[in-house]
Amino acid sequence: MNQICQRIKNLRIELLKRNLDAWYISGTDPHASEYLPARWQTRAFISGFTGSYGNVVITHEEAGLWTDSRYFIQAEEQLKGTGIKMYKLRIPGAVSPEMWIARKLPSGSKVGFDPQTLTVTGFRNLNNTLKKAGISMIGTPDFFENIWENRPELPKEKVFELKRTLTGLTGREKRNLLIDVLKGYGADFQVITALDELAWLFNLRGSDIPYNPLFTGYGVAGKNNTFLFVNPEKLTQDIKDSLQREDIILKTYEQFAEWLKTVKGNKVLIDPNSANYAVFNVLQAKNTIAEAISPVALLKSQKNETELAGFRAAMKKDGVALLEFFFWLTENAGKEGVTEYIAGKKLAEFRAQQPYYMGESFPPIVGYKAHGAIVHLNVSEEDALPLKREGVLLIDSGGQYLHGTTDITRTVALGDVTKMQKTDYTLVLKGMIALTTPQFPEETKGCNLDILARKALWERGLNYGHGTGHGVGHFLNVHEGPVSIRQECSETPVLPGMVLSNEPGIYREGEYGIRIENLLVCVEK
């Protein structure tokens, strides 16, 4: 029995102990993070799948993992021999986890879940379907505590402060903006659970999360008090003093759950798309809840002039690093030992030579030939293909700089290319250019713009399965909400100051992938 099969067996023992018929694993942490600290990499622990998106359901007899088109090929490969079947999301006729559970389990069944790691929206989506099938959702303790030997602890790395010269606003100025927005909702305060929102609101950064300069904590901000729940060993005395001068009440991360129980008689703003169900469930018992897209997320997404200047400076540094990398690639492709993995490492080395570089913004996607068709490839040193002087190479990478975050994709020819490759590249380029240049009215949403990037492909009967664009944070998450450019509509329109990616592509499984990506900023004219 392999390691994954043994872990699933151990989890099924926990199901029996608690009289449950299935357990749902969201694959995230109490902060709805995309990239996770080691402690919360539960999806990878139970399935072996290392992609950044996916849900897992374990019943007594079956197991499934649900993911989207970025990871179809990777998931099929990594799930071999585990007994877990991969199910495709965001395709016509897709069967969601809740639909699958409703079909597999009889009425009266009980599905367990960890309320810490499921958002309010996630809970409702599951519960609405399962309730109709007579199936109950049961909040449980974190089963991984019982089956994960030597489970990593929460990170303890230090937090550091970003000065106003980099952020454009002090933390107090940002919180005053938030208080003004909360007045419009009649809310006393907002509970901040998303780590990038927390970092932005307090002008602090950390290194708890791979590729994202974040720290683990919770925040509460409102008209009367501001709280920051973070373990004290993460804060230097200078930062503690600075926060206390701004009248911020410091408490430990562990004290947050107990503090929630003391809150009563308030109107509390919660974002159901990011707040976990455990937080919501406690607050709703003694308070009035106002549900809305997080005002912090909206404020954060509209970059000020200082932040935009930082982005442009970061892109210039990135440009230098990429030029050096492409020169190196031209000189070294085809040499012994030069692989996809080595190319990714070399690109990071060139970025690291730039001032204010803080690390990569996500694992580099370096896909040669057939690997280029794996949209979010994360190749290991052992599995990396050698680069020859033929075919095409897709490189999607980014950097974290103190003054900005980058994300850029280029597809380059390492030798002669076919007529079909030239045509595919041209179609992708036409789509990328079309999305670069439009003028549009206020309240336009990303879904209204998405067709511009796809039109040239659609005219040839082609398409791609992923979104066209995502928000990008300012020295924060490379994937930032609440806005995106994709076929499905989000509530939030594209607003001035928002920085978004523009990345159409074509993927021919078993042959190659082509994607081109730049970052865009929305400006008012």
Number of domains: 3
Shape: globular
Instruction: Assign the structural class, choosing from mainly alpha, mainly beta, alpha/beta, alpha+beta, or little secondary structure.
Output: alpha/beta
How many separate helices? 17
CATH superfamily of the largest domain: Creatinase/methionine aminopeptidase superfamily
Strand order of the largest sheet: 4-3-2-1-5-6
Q: What's the number of extended β-strand segments?
A: 26
The fold-level CATH name of the largest domain is: Creatine Amidinohydrolase
Distance between the termini: 63 Å
Low-confidence stretches: none
The share of residues in helices is 25-40%
The largest β sheet comes out as: 6 strands, mixed
* Percent of residues in beta strands: 15-25%
**Chain-averaged pLDDT:** 97
Top CATH class of the largest domain: Alpha Beta
What is Rg?
Answer: 23 Å
- CATH architect. name of the largest domain: Alpha-Beta Complex
Question: What's this model, at a glance?
Answer:
The protein is α/β, with parallel strands linked by helices and 525 residues long. Helices cover 35% and strands 20% of the residues.
Overall description:
The chain is of the alpha/beta class and 525 residues long. It has three domains: 3-147, Creatine Amidinohydrolase, Chain A, domain 1 (3-Layer(aba) Sandwich); 160-301, 3-Layer(aba) Sandwich (Creatine Amidinohydrolase, Chain A, domain 1), CATH 3.40.350; 305-521, Alpha-Beta Complex (Creatine Amidinohydrolase), CATH 3.90.230.10. Helix content is 35%, strand content 20%. The protein is built from 17 helices and 26 strands. Strand 2 (55-59) and strand 3 form a beta hairpin. Helix 4 (97-104) packs parallel to helix 5 and helix 14 (305-332) crosses helix 15 (340-352). The protein is globular and about 70 Å long. The N and C termini lie far apart (63 Å). The relative contact order is 0.10.
